[in-house]
Amino acid sequence: MISSAILEALTTKCGWQPAQTLVVGVSGGADSVALLHILKELKAKVVVGHFNHHLRETAERDARFVATLCESWRIPFEQGEGQVEQLAKVAGLGIEEAARQARYAFLFGLARKLSAYAVVTAHHADDQVETVLMHFLRGAGLDGLGGMAYHSTLAAFDEQIAICRPMLGVAKTEILSYCAARELDFVEDETNDDPRIYRNRLRNELLPLLETYNPGVRRTLLRNVEAAQADLRLLEALENEAFYSSLIREHPSGITLDRTAFLGLSEALRNRVIRRAAVTVRPNLRDFGLEMVRVAREAIEKNRARTALSDGLMIWCIGKSIQLTLDETSPDLSDYPQLKSAEGQVWQDGEAVFLENGWILRWEAMGARDFLAADEGLRLSPNHAWLAIAHPGMKLTVRGAKAGERIRPLGMPEGSQKLSDLFVNLKIPQPARVKWPVVLEGEKIIWVAGLRPAETNITDRAVGNIVHLWLERPIN
């Protein structure tokens, strides 16, 4: 009996309690009308949401049908609408995906307004079969073969309110029989036979062909879904552990992972961590398939500085870290000292230069006695530099590096080195170089902050007055 199967799915698999409000998406088709009728018979507390996509001439008819049905059944009704074709063009999406996003945005917005437990849809067993086939043909991996879940969240729309699909165990034929037995009217979507729509071709052409090889192919696919979902529950636990063992931080521009920890994972877990990071950065991601996972994994394994992925994602290998970002954002450089602007500024004794992400440059004049009392570790640290004062009131300049500039690093008494070569040798990532703080006296570079002081003017002896420069890391 459909009613008992749906009640069991709602309470056991979806965690719903009868006192909780449900927002039910009703298109007016047989599936959603049958679902709504069953919920009405169960005396569930429901509000109907209908979204008019303005894609068909019959869209207004469907909206009126659902509104009239709800009025006759005394069920609260809310309608949303949007020009989906226009939305698709603006967002660069296919019509089906744009319609889905607009519809779910409306339904979840309604659920938030009503403090509902979940959005409920009428996806059924035949939808599950078609979805799994689509995922398989796209190359979505085990996650795709797991199909739709009875209960899940769609982070792109709401991280708290669930989406429930209590009819996943019910076949389309059962739904039509239910409607016929109770003389339930519904509307037909004429686009269900449109061969230009990919899902329709699967339903009307591919599945009938597969049934000539295996008449029970639908049941076989559904059994495979159950097996895949059982395996996925174990993999998700392992994925969660692997992701957080690799995670350094989440930040506004994306996700930063520890490359060494990532490379210590098995190939399967690397794939899952990449997909998890991608979905975290872009929650509405739907088509990040195996090919993109392979491209990302290869970029990390080969330590490529920057690799473009699909869906506006970028992967960076920066030092010992991996970053996944949106391509319109820069990578997170909080591990490196970065000027707020590459333009120069005068720097005088006692002043602090505040850099990005909490880094600070400081300097002070000191006498020989203070220099001798300084910890030897500080004197050898690249975060500190010690200069013999050339003249009273010496002023320094801090700015970003310029193309072609050279430095004579400490330990190189003759000749000089390009700053670009210094950055390369010390494995400073390209994005961090432009605004790396370089300290000059006049036109002469005396210190690349945190990396190398220059040979000229730098002292390791207590001679007269000394300038102490240092770089402070942010306090975490």
Could you list some keywords that capture this structure?
about 475 residues; 17 helices; single chain; 22 strands
What's the helix and strand layout?
Layout: H1 2-13, E1 22-25, H2 30-41, E2 46-52, H3 59-73, E3 77-81, H4 84-91, H5 95-114, E4 118-120, H6 125-138, H7 141-145, E5 151-154, E6 158-164, H8 172-181, H9 198-213, H10 217-246, E7 247-251, E8 254-258, H11 259-263, H12 267-281, H13 290-301, E9 306-308, E10 313-318, E11 321-326, E12 345-347, E13 352-354, E14 360-366, H14 368-373, H15 376-380, E15 384-388, E16 396-399, E17 406-407, E18 417-418, H16 419-425, H17 430-433, E19 438-441, E20 444-448, E21 452-453, E22 466-472
Parallel strand pairs: 1-2, 1-4, 2-3, 4-6
Antiparallel strand pairs: 5-6, 7-8, 8-11, 9-10, 10-11, 12-16, 13-14, 14-22, 15-22, 16-19, 17-18, 19-20, 20-21
Helix pairs in contact: 2-8, 4-5, 6-9, 6-10, 10-12, 12-13
